[in-house]
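Show me a record, fold above all:
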Amino acid sequence: MTSTPTVAPGGAAEPAAAPPRPTPAAARRRRPGRLRRHAWQYVFLAPMLLLFVAFTLWPMVASWWYSFFDWDGVGPATEWVGLANFTEVLGNERFWHAFRNSFLFSLAAICVEMPLALLVAILLNSRRLRGRNLYRLFLFLPVVTTTAVVGIVFAVLLDPAGGFVNEVLRSAGIVDSPVSFLSESSALPTVMAVDVWKGFGITLVYWLAALQTVPEDLYEAAKVDGANGRQTLRHVTLPVIAPIGVVILLLTFQKSMNPFDLVQAMTQAGPNYATDVVATYIYRYAFNPELNAPRYGFACAAGVVFGVITLVMTALQAPLLRRQYLKGSR
């Protein structure tokens, strides 16, 4: 039903009156609330939020709280010691030895894994390379392989008493006697090499994703200008992917600072603590049955100290990330 215009006394038609607008209160009553409109989204998010709180947020908060207690993990924590655990951690030589080894793992990942992954990514990014997807698959397979399984397999392969690697070396005449790859002097470089091999595929994927962001127009312009492959790499590819490279640096640094599962599977932090890292150091005080009583409070303090130091080291890289981002956005 349409409204008809009214006629004024002078004969001119007046426009029909507009229907009254609903009040804000009525409008709020008519449209469903935010919770009702997004009810299903909250339902699907609830399990993830519960798991995050239970297995990430609460352990972080609890670690800070228990680090102020001399607690063995049984019953409530009642023996308050204040900063005594932190003082003991900072003055413990074995903690700094473990931290040094953890830092060496990151250094190997940054100085060896990242450049090699970049070179391989440039090769696999070429459209002229046949079977490049198959090569990517083979290089990524170690990433999806369970780290504990990788550690056990390499420990068997490198065993001086009948290990496959030693058998091959002796059959080829390279060595006369078995090589102890996991001895006190060579265990750390060996485990670091396995860690680089294990994480190589994910760093490769990062670099391949970065190379996909380089516009083809830049390559065509460089080709028109007569630039060769090396010049194109130096003046086109590397400057464009530099901001993403800083992000890859941060991700690689964070990933390689905690090689617990690989070290525990291959050497159990031995021999003579040669491959001890901060994660195995914390595990030893928290769960090692050889101790008279577990020291969960001390282990929590060591974890807090390690987390703070890692956070500071990561924050120191933030200016580099910001500088590269600003340079890339110009």
